[in-house]
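Per reviewer request, we include the raw input and output of the structure prediction for the construct analysed in the revised manuscript.
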Amino acid sequence: MTSLTSNASGFIDGNPVATFILDKDHRVVSWNRACEALTGIPATSLIGTTDQWRAFYPSKRPVMADLLIDGLNEDDLRYFYQEKFHPSTLIPGACEAEDFFPDFGNGGCWLFFTAAPILDAEGNVIGAIETLQDFTERRKAEAALRDREALLAQILHSTSVATVVIDQNHQITHWNKACEALTGQQAESAMVTRDHWRSPNPEARPFLSDLMLDGKIEDDFHRYFCGDLRQSSLIVDAFETEANWKNASGEDKWLYLTAAPLINGNGELIGAIETMQDVTERRLAEESLRKSEERYRELSITDAMTQLHNTRHFGVMVGKEIERAERYRRPLTLLIADVDDFKAINDTYGHSEGDRVLVTLAEVIRTSLRNTDSAYRYGGEEFAVLMPEITVWDGAKFAERVRTQFCARPFEMAEQTTLHSSVSIGVTQFQPGDDTKSLFCRADDGMYQAKRRGKNCVVVVEPPSGP
């Protein structure tokens, strides 16, 4: 052993890893400079003694190298090192352990130590070598990392905003309490899985954060989401949208989603974080307001009695249709209809019966319209019909159909009297240069011509020819 340590003394002393060697009698035969620096005990005070324990423990007990010299007894190892030891994966017959030594340095020290037997040519144990590595800083860094992760988890769990974090493999690392409450899915069933899509979405589709992690958020967004994707005005490189989901109970929910990348100190993408806020009540309120506004708009342009559009809306739409016909050089036909002898109906049967006649004419007109046509109660007993993409002669056929159907409607009056009303209709077509007044006056003139011809007829007024 003396010749062995003598030949290796230069290597051992120069080794930056703290190293000591025991002979088969457990005497210290080598205690290198790194070991002196680590333990604070000079080699001169230990060489030739069995006091190696003094460097590590307050009372006498074997170090790991001692146990290997005496034979690798697992019960002894477990007695002294509990579950902190394990066989070396690199050195046959060696053993490793990690432990904290409170008397080392300022505030204690974490050591990783490996002990291996030294064998002679016949394979007999003639001593043991043990190396010691101070990994206190690593343990502190690990502890600091755990503290930061615990703090992050605490922050995430303390926020009332549903938050999910996924790693670069799309596995969930954080699923906070608010997320549980919103989705109905517990963290235990979501953590370290790729199944975060299962709730609130019953079909397999990625979260916004998944698309961000794949670098395909703008390319693939509309494959999985409806609505608009926009960049966040608050968070750099983040995106946001609103999406409709079903929760675990099958309820429709509107969620405001924000996804942001998670970048490490090297600028590498390591995950993504997504927040989900329930905006269902706001969306329902907005939808209710929209419907209310639509209803008010309809009321503002609708004649209450006949449910056709009113005069004000006619003034808006006839201008738009004239502009369109002028721009695209397409036909536009206007009909003006007036109930014949309406004053006499009111005077004879009363205004309520007169109203019934007007409602019936409005119904006949409405059921005869195409999707592109529009009808209006222009005033009193007068009605207007705008027919885009229709020539005056096709418009006249429509007018004749309305006239015939209206005349065929009997009105049962008081005292078993039956009334058959009629309507006079003027029809004309837009010509370049027409405005609302000229087009209307021409159709209106046709209606009055029908009155003068005996009523209950259709008169077409063609635009005047050129000079």
